[in-house]
Write a structure and sequence with these properties.
Elements: H1 4-28, H2 35-47, H3 52-59, H4 63-75, E1 79-82, E2 92-95, H5 97-117, H6 123-144
Antiparallel strand pairs: 1-2
Helix pairs in contact: 2-5
């Protein structure tokens, strides 16, 4: 691990592990969203109703994968199918009130966890880390051609 990129790869692997380990604890504590639902709902909230084709383009996932994920979200009452508000043929998925509440609760829990982890960090350190994460994600998205909408 003589290069900084080797260390970054190792640390992002661990970060992914830590985030996955938190998921079961989150659901035991009342959370209801798995990682795919959390990500899909976040995107739909940012962009508004989306079709399977739009979700496939946005995430680079196969339609069959998205059909399984959205079917689970439909059964859970997190999204509903609607006619395309723009008059298109494809039906779209819109986040429901229950989906909004679940997403807000999960996000609040995630933020609370990050605040506990970073309690000893200065506000400047937190801001700098956030800026570097945004830059890393944006550069990945630009290389992939799938930018994520940001507030």
């Amino acid at each position: 691990m003589d290069k900084p990129t080797h260390l970054i790869e190792f640390e992002t692997m661990l970060l992914g592990r830590h985030l996955q380990l938190n998921a079961p604890r989150s659901r035991r504590g009342g959370g209801q969203l798995d990682r795919s639902a959390y990500t899909l709902l976040s995107r739909i909230r940012m962009e508004g109703p989306m079709s399977i084709g739009q979700l496939s383009d946005a995430f680079g996932l196969d339609a069959s994968t998205l059909n399984r994920q959205t079917a689970a979200m439909l059964r859970a009452g997190l999204v509903e199918r609607i006619q395309d508000p723009d008059g298109g043929i494809a039906r779209k998925f819109r986040i429901t009130d229950a989906g909004e509440l679940g997403l807000d609760a999960e996000r609040a829990e995630n933020i609370s966890g990050l605040e506990r982890v970073m309690a000893a960090w200065s506000p400047g350190e937190v801001s700098l880390f956030a800026a570097y994460l945004k830059r890393l994600n944006s550069d990945i998205e630009n290389l992939d051609g799938r930018p994520w909408p940001r507030p």
